[in-house]
Batch of 2 targets.
Target 1
Amino acid sequence: MSQRPETLADAPLGRESAYPERYDAGLLYPIPRAANRAPLGIEEGALPFVGEDEWHAFEVSWLNARGKPVVAVARFRVPAQSPCLIESKSWKLYLNGFNQSRFASREAVIETLERDLAQVAGAAVSVELFAVDDEALAPRRLPGECLDDLDIAIDDYTPSAEHLRVGDEVVEETLHSHLLKSNCPVTGQPDWGSVLIRYRGPRLDREGLLRYLVGYRQHQDFHEHCVEHIFMDLMARARPERLLVLARYVRRGGLDISPWRATPGERPPAPLRLSRQ
């Protein structure tokens, strides 16, 4: 049975909460990143990667100046260097508070979101609002080769960097898997996702890489920290010249989270949404 970490002692996650009737920025709950990064050897103020946590919110609505509802899909980008991430249930409750609140314009909604989220995360957060049928939200496929058809035996469901092996040949390739699963560190609920790895360096043994990724199946951690764990293990074991790790988790409660971490200079593919998100 999972235990609530000290950083979540006062968080609404896993507790009954009143449905907010009005906008309330105080609902947002920050979680310091440092406590989860320290076991990975990541020092505060000296990050070995660049990156963002990209969120999509599919249940966004507010009232216009005349009281008519407006609906949208929101995309948020929280920089990896922000001191805090934002706990997802508190984020959902905060967004619910917009439902019966009036705003003069879409721009006013964006300004409010950017201000509140930045204050809690400790760094600037970008916000985009899309129409619910915007083509930018159409599902796409992950680039690269999929590992999931490899016919291998697996009996280890905790992350073990020992599975990561490399050869002598230096390659540049993009690989992905849809078999990523981790668990909420408090409720134990499953978090399903897909992961993309793009690198230049010694060729990764694909069977070992898939065994390693499946190893997160019983691991309890936040999405953002799972991606950082994968990034750090790959850097330590494979020592690539360049590396990008991107995960796209399936939505829960109207929110999906897609963190990416990379060596400086690397960028993720253009924003995309998978069919099961």
Target 2
Amino acid sequence: MAKKVTMQKIADHLGVSKFVVSKSLSGKDGVNETTRERVIQAASQLGYFTQKNAYVQSIKRTTQGVGSDRNKQSVLVLMPNIRSQTQDSLYWGKIVDGIALALDSEGLGMVIVSEHRADNFVNILNPNGILGLVGVGQISTSLLLEVHRIGLPMVLIDHEDPLIPSDTVFANNVDSMSRLSNHLMGTGHTRLHFIGNIRYSRSFRDRWIGFRSALEESGMRLPMEDDEMLFLEGMDDGTFRDEFKNWINKRKKAKTLPTALICANDSIALTVSEVLKEEGFTLPDDISVTGFDNIEDASRGVPPLTTVHVPKEAMGHAAVEKLLSRIHNPSAPLEKILISADIVHRESVAEPRS
């Protein structure tokens, strides 16, 4: 019988204290990120995660798994720490919560990895101790190629790669944005404008497509494809403020102000609302603003933000269900799962002034 892989064994392997290993595997503060990743890598290579009650948390929180009927295996959750993709995010964190709850109900553990370099990721990855992978958010092709190369089953949430065949889970961005746009037009808005970088992600692109389709079907005039508001940079940190401020003031001077701004997500919409108020606009009397995702801050905006509620936990749960189904039926056709999303009506939208 193989000897149990203990925290002390990992500590001896690395030449560090058991205390450091414990802190690293529990996700507690007090260990620098380099040491934490070294511990995770060694634990994976030594087979620590295949054991009962083994767990890891590379950021802040995780689910402890005991999986008695699946060889006590864990699922790898890959969420590279780029853009705003962290567990502290009001969007991504909720998705990870949904994954954690679904795995816990199946008695499986969860290994969260925030690595974004392919060479480091290969060292962490131990396919013998991992049941499959759920990718969350933007992930480089090089990382996904490594997963595909070793044949590890995977499901991607809110991301897809044309080079990597995999099951995917998205909110139904096209239909939801189309319904939101139709709602605004039904309220009387005839000058609508989309705000966000349509090259940023597949979800942003799909939301633009939904917006454009609604306008086309209603015979509305479409923004030009080279419109600067479709290629905003600095959305993650709000540094697009100046670019948007210059744009809205040009529109005001030219008397071509839109009556409604449809933003690609809530974070953009909240920043846009702040800039508009700074520039002397009254919301929603002068301009209506909408977001997308329904993060917690959306309801705390001034005014509270009309948005689309993306069932983030449900997306995580659906990804786990799909991964387990894929494991049992590896030759089944690949699927793109779309989760319905509903409009949340709040005070940031009103009828346009005549």
